[in-house]
Amino acid sequence: MALRFIGIDPNTDEKNCPRVWFDDQKQEFVIQGWKADDALNEEVRSTGPLPDYEAVVRVPARMAQIMREACDAAEHSGVVR
User: Would you kindly state where each structural domain of the chain is located, as residue ranges?
Assistant: First the structure.
């Protein structure tokens, strides 16, 4: 796996915090965030199934620039045109 670290929640304590990476090899975003609670999972399921092998996580809106950087990394890798 060729994970490229993109960024961390700017309001973090650097111990337990959302982070974003881009996997150059698999051409995927990797996101660490807070686990969704049961209510959010149910709301997500109202729009479609949530298989056991998938998870819903939350990241704060203050990470928008970091998410943009991850999207830029994908574009520069040639996967997004």
Answer: 3-76
